[in-house]
Specification:
The chain is α/β, with parallel strands linked by helices. The chain contains 14 helices and 13 strands. The protein starts with 5 loop residues before the first helix and ends with a helix. Helix 5 links the parallel strand 5 and strand 6. The protein folds into two domains: 182 residues, Glycogen Phosphorylase B (Rossmann fold), CATH 3.40.50; 176 residues, Rossmann fold, CATH 3.40.50. Helix 7 crosses helix 13. A six-stranded parallel sheet has the order 10-9-8-11-12-13, sandwiched between helices. It has a four-stranded parallel sheet with strand order 4-5-6-7, with helices on both faces. Strands 1-3-2 form a three-stranded mixed sheet. The mean pLDDT is 87.
């Protein structure tokens, strides 16, 4: 928090919905900080919500406390609260269901479903085992006994709806923030400017495939692909066999950028690209950068995963890319043939519709919580 990751953006959006629905909101932000030797916390205000940041040192003890300590967070939870646990420790959630059952209502927020081996950055065997146990308990057992659950996709809704009350909220956008209206960067308007923004990982986003498809479809036309979130060396570390992509003359690897700068790059582009395979990881979550690109007024080239089909109007705000390579190349060719005028018209259309405005979810959130409180 407040701007570091996709998770931070999601929580800020969820808090904005709750504040607008008339609730007093406290965000308890629990994490690891390798620059400290002792646990600590600080409090600040953000978007009309109070934030309590709790940090543990980077150690086995710190990891255990982060995942399983209940005492450090319960002191910040007044009686009568509705507590929303975002992808949080299964055992802490279970304790909240049992120990405080009569004093507040606990609701999981589930926005992803990885296995431990699919999460980037887990290096030790101990951490991997701990994470696997935690994920399985949270997804398959603990969340099913919650009175209600907020999920990011219909995939998760279908999984949980026979067990508890569900509410689907994808990534939401606060269009009042200045970052959506920044001055654009001076990109060459005589070529098509594509942008990928995110952390591709080894398996999450197939950056190699979408770059090769665009290159083939261009047939010599001028274009640039800006890649935000990973450097060339980091990309090759993840994909050592994809040197042709790393050294593609059309690709600019920009590495990590602060969130606001990342948004500026998207705002200045013509198309945002996202290629995810059709699997549980892709379908359980909802891509933050898809919603953010829409907020920037930028059309998408994106594969058919999660609930994206519900938001794409073909050739108006994007292209739902086929998994068949030949069909995908033909789809992308249409972009190169459409010209600058059509790109600009599509951008105007997207800016006007505001698909992911957080206001759309204020009343559903209020009804969902009132339905749980009145039980």
């Amino acid at each position: 928090m407040p701007d570091g990751t996709a998770s931070a953006q999601l929580i800020r959006g969820m808090a904005k919905i709750a504040v607008s629905a008339g609730y007093n909101v406290v965000i308890i932000d629990v994490g690891i900080d390798d620059s400290i030797s002792h646990a600590g916390e600080k409090t600040y205000e953000m978007d009309e919500a109070k934030v309590v940041a709790i940090r543990y040192p980077k150690s086995i003890k710190g990891e255990v406390l982060k995942r399983f300590s209940y005492k450090t967070i319960k002191k910040h939870i007044p009686d009568g609260s509705v507590v929303m646990f975002y992808n949080y420790s299964s055992l802490v959630m279970l304790k909240s269901f049992i120990y405080r059952k009569k004093k507040y209502i606990s609701i999981p927020i589930i926005t992803e479903w990885y296995s431990a081996g699919e999460i980037e950055g887990i290096k030790s065997f101990f951490s991997c085992c701990l994470k696997k146990i935690d994920i399985d308990l949270r997804m398959r057992i603990v969340s099913k006994i919650a009175p209600g659950i907020i999920v990011a996709s219909k995939y998760l809704e279908n999984y949980y709806k026979s067990h508890c009350k569900t509410l689907v909220i994808p990534t939401v956008i606060n269009y009042e923030q200045k970052k959506w209206y920044q001055d654009k960067l001076d990109f060459n308007q005589k070529e098509i400017n594509f942008v990928y923004a995110g952390s591709p990982g080894k398996k999450k986003d197939n950056l190699t495939e979408i770059i090769r498809l665009i290159d083939k479809a261009s047939e010599g036309a001028s274009f640039t692909i800006r890649i935000v979130g990973v450097s060339r060396d980091e990309f090759l570390e993840l994909h050592p066999d994809d040197l042709d992509v790393a050294d593609n003359r059309h690709c600019i690897f920009m590495g990590y950028l602060p969130h606001e700068k990342c948004i500026q790059v998207i705002l200045s582009s013509d198309y945002s690209i996202l290629y995810r395979e059709n699997n549980r990881i892709s379908n359980a979550g909802f891509p933050t950068k898809f919603a953010e690109s829409m907020a920037c007024g930028i059309p998408q080239i994106v594969t058919d995963t999660s609930d994206i089909r519900d938001y794409i109007k073909e050739d108006k705000n994007g292209i739902l890319l086929s998994f068949d390579k030949m069909k995908a190349v033909d789809q992308i060719k249409r972009i190169f043939l459409s010209g600058r005028y059509q790109i600009d018209e599509n951008k105007k259309y997207i800016k006007e519709i505001k698909l992911f405005d957080y206001h759309n979810y204020v009343e559903p959130m209020r009804e969902f919580i009132n339905g749980l409180v009145s039980k």
